[in-house]
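Review form for a predicted model. The reviewer records the input and the model, then writes brief findings.
Reviewer: anonymous (R2)
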Amino acid sequence: MSTACADFDRTLDQHGLPPLQASAPTTFQVNVGKRCNQACHHCHVDASPRRTEMMQRAVAERVVALIEASPVVEVVDITGGAPELNPNFRFLVQAARALGRRVIDRCNLTILFEAGQEDLAEFLAAERVDVVASLPCYLAENVDKQRGRGVFDKSMLALARLNALGYGRPGSPLGLDLVYNPVGAYLPPPQDQLEAQYKEQLRARFGIEFHRLFTLTNMPIKRFAEQLAREGKSAEYMSLLINHFNPQAVAHVMCRSLVSVGWEGTLYDCDFNQMLEIPLAGPRRTLWDIESVDQLGGRGIATAFHCFGCTAGAGSSCGGALV
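Model under review:
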């Protein structure tokens, strides 16, 4: 792709919008490593059972110290890989909850059936952790095609187990949200309509309840980018994202209120920049270069071609559609 086609800052300027700038981060997103029990075709982290990158205890302790020193941080969003496979996952959860922060576990559901995770669901419920779970379709064929054979059936069992603990039930404080991403090179459908379909299908076929559905645009990086290249669709997909640029989504992109930390302690504007190894601009590049996450407010945000993915159509973020 050419620089001209992928110049996100130029596109902002053409629409009379200033460069992206962050407020003081209310969400601290912590990627604890790339090891996962799955190897999904769309994964922008390039996670798999073979990956060995894992956040060590000293880094996790620094994360906790910064959360304690950062009153502005309301949410600790723990991701991976399968974050639960990190030996420090439960330490982070308990420490953040003890500090009164909301904690999100970005869960692939099948992790509940891995050896050593037999009590995971009960642990999450006891700590009142909100679960955001990947489920790219309510049909087994589409899920297994993207995530591996048998994943759909295990996911249904996991959701039923979470429901039994109170997750996803109407009025329950135990949050259970699902995440949809397309199985191919196209934008997600309208989030509200798809959520209604998910709820109808999962309730009728499996008795499953959940709170919200988040639609997430596939980012043309890492494994999905490799898939696009194999299919000869890289330029076509980038054109789709650029041609559907929505200036209304720009005000709500997640990097404005979030900072991401990698497994080794490097700071990034978002999880996607982390996977492309685009660190924060300036001297504050690691957990040890700041005394509080609050200091990161007002920074300019590093952009690249993938930013068109967050601003295409209804927009996309870790919390779903933006507009």
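Findings: The mean pLDDT is 93.
Further findings: The first strand starts at residue 27 and ends at 31.
Recommendation: see findings above.
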